[in-house]
Amino acid sequence: MKPDDGILRVADKPVQSFLDIPEIIRSAPKGPLGLSVLRQGSAFDVTVTPENGRIGIANKTIVKKLAFAPAVREAVSATWNLVRQTFQILKGLLTASISPKAALTGPLGIAKASGDAARSGARALLFLVASLSISVGILNLFPLPPLDGGHLAILAGEGLRRRDFSAAAKSWILNAGAMVLFLLIGLVLYSDLSKTSWLGRYLP
Question: Which of 44, 68, 48, 55 is nearest to 22 (CA)?
């Protein structure tokens, strides 16, 4: 692969957007993958082997000047693609089709991605911030106390029962949710540390 190459297909599946590539890679069987690459007007095939769900490429930002209405449509489309990708990753984690090590990123990974984005320019950094904001917003809506979604779930449950939960029941629900949340935080930190060169070699 070289700079300015375009990817037409991955594992015989057409690529409409760069955001399609990670999902195709995650859903493909483990092992070598075939890519259809466009270079200077000519298409050819190459074979790559992903590591931790990645093939070591990044997208290049192409700036297009748009009128207001097309710009709004592009913004909505890009936001929807990010939301869709986030839910696809969550689905993959729940069905065990995606490795947590490949999908989860903690403070260390975010710091590295922020540095890479900052070196690429303000647009890349703003896109990263938007992506993180969407991911955090979706996570916050999960029906898991003490997240906002958890509180909404409690209110919904009380509405269906037509009476409040007891203080003891609410305390138990909040404590159980907090334990699950701390376990998730621990998993993210483990995934983060396992990707580092100085500690990853010692972790399974």
Answer: 55
Q: How confident is the model at residue 194 (pLDDT cuts 50, 70, 90)?
A: confident
Contact 150, 143 (CB under 8 A): yes
Q: Show the tokens assigned to 177.
A: 């949710």
> Measured between alpha carbons, how far is 27 from 119 in angstroms, rounded to an integer?
31
Whether the pTM exceeds 0.90: the reply is: no
The token duo for 83 is 């939301």
CA distance 160 to 163: 8
Architecture of the 1-60 domain: Roll (2.30)
Residues 6+ apart with CB under 8 A from 55: 25, 33, 35, 48, 49
What residue segments make up the domains of the chain, in order of their start? 1-60
Q: What is the dihedral of CA 43, 48, 53, 56, to 10 degrees?
A: -70
Name 39's bridge partners: 42
Give one DSSP letter per residue of 11-51, joined into a string. TTEE-SSTTHHHHHHHHSPSS-EEEEEEETTEEEEEEE--B
Token readout for 97 is 């089709």
pLDDT digits (tens, 9 = 90+) for 25-36: 877 888 899 999
- C-alpha span between 163 and 143 (Å, rounded): 19
pLDDT range class, residue 204, cuts 50, 70, 90: low
